[in-house]
Amino acid sequence: MQVVRLATELRARGWEVAVVSLVKLEYCVHGNGLLDQLEPQRIAVHSLEMKPGVPALRAVFRLRSLIRSFRPDVVHCHMYHASILGRITRLFCRMPVLISTVHSTREASQQGGPTWHKELLYRVTDALADRTTIVCQAGLERYSRVGAVPALKLRLVPNGIDTEIFTRSEERRQRVREALGISSEFVWLSAGRLVEAKDYPTLFRALELMGPNRFVVLIVGTGRLEPELRNECSRRGLDGQVRFCGHREDMLNLYCAADAFVMSSKLEGLPLVLLEAASTGLPAVVTSVGGNPEIVVHDVSGYVVPPGDPAQLAAALRRLMEAGLECRKGMSRAARQHCYEHYRMEVVMDRWLDLYAECLPTVLLNRAISGSV
């Protein structure tokens, strides 16, 4: 999602852009809907035809061929596998600038295995990248502390969102709540993959501690833990209050229908769903991991609690529900204002262009200023 937004914004500013996916395009998360946004902007999309989780040496030479054909001034790699592949490929072809972007405070494994080797590979291949960026302050501090990236080459550039799209609508709110069969109940929204890092069991324990309340929790996302999480809801008597909504393309509808957002994660980077919720004016209760406390200002636009603590999470949920309507409206305004000032796509894009200019040789910078890049 972030790559598509960066690509379209760069194209709108006169840059020539191409997007390369490591895996086959049908494997891309929400691939079809996102890729449809690139075609009208004349942004080419290529695939290295890799299978998920299977290294392929030929991908290096496919990427080398694409780079030699496109001749980019900047190669910008997002996430671990793309970053390592881009760095290795730089040994075989010319890249004026290579930037890696890390999207989490700590590398994770979908299989739950060790990940220390990923940070070691970042360190070993660091000389092949001009800069490494990370999306939140907590991640920047940790990557510098563990030595994965030298502090002088590490930069903070957050995710950006379209604040014009993610805005509240009372008409949409009423229509969607009616379609969901929700009347006066307080609606909590949570969104994210159904995996260990999101720590939904802590959320369920917190909901159980809250006792009988008129609230509904909408959980958006899919993942291998879904059967287990559904069973846990049943064991805790939450079937009538927690709704698993699966994958949804209409997230704006759900942001508008909700009264507040909740995130119980034990590992995050700078979650786009939390930025979108803030832009839509949702107060939130989140755990103090990754960039969550950078998006949600405690006691101003919501509450920040320690991860893995259902009692404190329950207390914060209850506190927000019991706050007066005017208090929640104030939090709503604060959430949107903070998001608009710091995470609006135009603001973030300016930071990217500043970084590109910092890295580009003088001759390429002059070309960029003249609009010929």
Give a quick precis of the structure.
With 373 residues, the chain is an alpha/beta fold. It has helices at residues 2-12, 31-35, 58-70, 80-89, 116-124, 137-145, 170-179, 200-209, 226-235, 251-257, 272-279, 292-295, 310-322, 325-343, 345-359, 362-370, and strands at residues 18-23, 44-50, 74-78, 97-102, 131-134, 154-156, 186-191, 215-220, 242-246, 260-263, 284-287, 302-305.
Overall morphology? globular
How many H/I helical runs?
Answer: 16
Strands, total number: 12
Spatial order of the strands in the main sheet?
A: 9-8-7-10-11-12
Q: Give the CATH class of the largest domain.
A: Alpha Beta
CATH topology of the largest domain: Rossmann fold
Count of separate structural domains: 2
Instruction: Give the CA-CA distance, first to last residue.
Output: 24 Å
CATH superfamily of the largest domain: Glycogen Phosphorylase B
CATH architectural type of the largest domain: 3-Layer(aba) Sandwich
**Given the helix and strand composition, which structural class is it?**
alpha/beta
Helix content: 40-55%
Mean pLDDT: 91
Beta-strand content estimate: 15-25%
Major sheet summary line: 6 strands, parallel
Spans of 5+ residues with little confidence (pLDDT < 50)? none
The rounded Rg comes to 21 Å
- SSE pattern, N- to C-terminal: HEHEHEHEHEHEHEHEHEHEHEHEHHHH
